TrEMBL record:
Name listed for the protein in its UniProt record: EF-hand domain-containing protein
Domain spans labelled EF-hand: 39-74, 109-144
Domain of life: Eukaryota
Pfam families attached to this UniProt entry: EF-hand_7 (PF13499)
Record keywords: Calcium, Repeat
GO molecular function: calcium ion binding
Entry-linked PROSITE patterns: EF_HAND_2
Organism encoding this protein: Alexandrium catenella
Region (Disordered): 195-241
């Protein structure tokens, strides 16, 4: 095993939690990591170096074990965490892998990051992440991609077989209130659309005008100055013509 090292407990927990996230969420966080600025990357550099005790520029299984043993994490969980973070054939955790695990815990998922990541997925600039987009980017099977989309749509119960930007943001931030609000808006939109599609009901908003009505309207218009409201007349109403 590698020598014991002093690592921030929050960083160890973030690595541990990352391994338990759904696969699609991890994929999203990996894409977010590629969109980070140099300043954002530098925020967690020291934490990476505290794990990389051999100064090879990567984290080995032994180095991860040395840090996680102190936190009381079992060997099986450590190996699982390493297997999830190890996305390279050299069996070592690279800085980009580490950055993905730090997203949302040590690095804030601000709007511009989420927008940039959504655009990476939205290959055809349709405003949605489609099944084809996910297959092109992730190289996953059709069944896995369907599961990813259902995972996001399950949050608001509105299934279209594609992911909108609002759904993506809500999913990544894990904000149930946003999901609820979005669902409410969708219900209202559906009701309005149903009303628009229904046969029109003939309702007249006009009533015959009278000489008295027209004279009152003319009187009010002439007595008002430009740019100011007409004087209040509690005893008359404008004619609907």
């Amino acid at each position: 095993k590698a020598e014991a090292c002093t690592v921030d407990a929050g960083v160890v927990e973030a690595l541990h939690q990352f391994a338990s996230l759904p696969k699609f969420r991890r994929c999203c966080m990996e894409l977010i990591a590629w969109s980070l600025s140099n300043e954002e990357r530098s925020k967690v550099r020291e934490h990476f170096l505290s794990l990389d005790t051999s100064r090879r520029g990567t984290i080995t299984l032994a180095e991860l074990q040395a840090a996680m043993d102190v936190a009381g994490i079992s060997d099986d969980e450590i190996r699982h965490t390493f297997a999830v973070l190890n996305t390279n054939p050299d069996h070592e955790i690279h800085y980009s892998d580490f950055l993905a695990a730090m997203v949302s815990t040590r690095i804030k998922m601000h709007d511009s990051l989420l927008a940039a990541t959504f655009k990476r997925f939205d290959q055809h600039n349709s405003g949605y992440i489609t099944k084809e987009d996910l297959q092109d980017i992730l190289g996953e099977s059709s069944e896995d991609v369907d599961q990813f989309i259902q995972e996001v749509e399950l949050k608001d119960g509105h299934q279209e077989g594609r992911i909108s930007y609002q759904e993506f943001v809500s999913y990544m931030r894990g904000d149930p209130q946003t999901h609820h609000a979005d669902k409410t808006v969708r219900v209202i939109d559906d009701q309005l659309q149903a009303q628009a599609d229904a046969p029109p009901v003939r309702t007249s908003l006009h009533r015959p005008s009278t000489t008295t009505d027209r004279s009152r309207l003319g009187s009010k218009e002439s007595s008002s100055s430009i740019g100011s409201p007409p004087p209040e007349d509690k005893h008359s109403s404008c004619a609907l013509t």
